[in-house]
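Researcher: Structure prediction, please.
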Amino acid sequence: MAGSTNKKVVVSRLDREPLSGFVNPQNFVQASGIELLSPSGTILTIPLSEVVAVSFVRDFDAAEGWRDHRFFPSRPKTSGLWLKLFFRTGETLEGLVSNNLMQLEADGFTVVTPQNQKLFVPRAALHEVQVLGVIGSPLRQRKPGKKAEDQRQLPMFES
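Model: Predicted structure follows.
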């Protein structure tokens, strides 16, 4: 657990109490599981098969806030892939992931929830993932310097 940029997290687990602690956001997912530094200073390794989600929080009192607001009230504004995650526990959650295949992780998904909270969800905790939409697709953007012209508008101030 080398590194000085540890982040506060709450690890939601299957059929167990959530665990609070700190992780290095660059490499907290190991082959053996999630590496967590507890507030008392011990390093725990939680197998991915026991983890439902890892919530990045500002304070530990926020516990499992992602479960309160799980759906976007309307289409998200931030660019990315809009996903619906179906957990093995029967819960569902909507979130946004990056629309860059180079940023996909082998062990799970880092999603942004409707309340703008960062969440890591292991693939082992899911039984299905649906893409609801592509927000801000580069295919639909106009080329720089080229404006769409309205043919109904008369040119009045052009030289």
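Model: The radius of gyration is 20 Å.
Researcher: Thanks, that helps.
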